[in-house]
Amino acid sequence: MRYAEFDNSLKPFTGTVRVPLGQGQITVKLVLLCDGFQQARAIYSHLFGAKNIVAIVQTMTESNSNALKSPEALQVKAMSDQARQIHLRAKTVRARKSLDKAKQSLQKALNSNVSNQ
Length: 117
Known about the structure:
Layout: H1 3-6, E1 11-21, E2 24-34, H2 37-48, E3 53-58, H3 71-116
Antiparallel strand pairs: 1-2, 1-3
């Protein structure tokens, strides 16, 4: 099974095309949602004719906005992620210490119970 068969995210493609009007023509921009560049080109060609296509460009979306972030913003995000991981590790260590202390208390109580009987 191919990834494209279960990935249903369509990509936006902005096409600039010429539309003939009698003696003149106008240039129009349209956005299509397609699987890929070839499908976008085929649809624009079918609708307006291959000679009337000026340009087709894939439009940036929210999901690939990391490419637009500055290096400083990416560094801040990495540092905050690292701080979150350190906080979780510290929380895990505290929980383990608490669990070990509870085990020792239970063992102590069991030992004193056994010696009293």
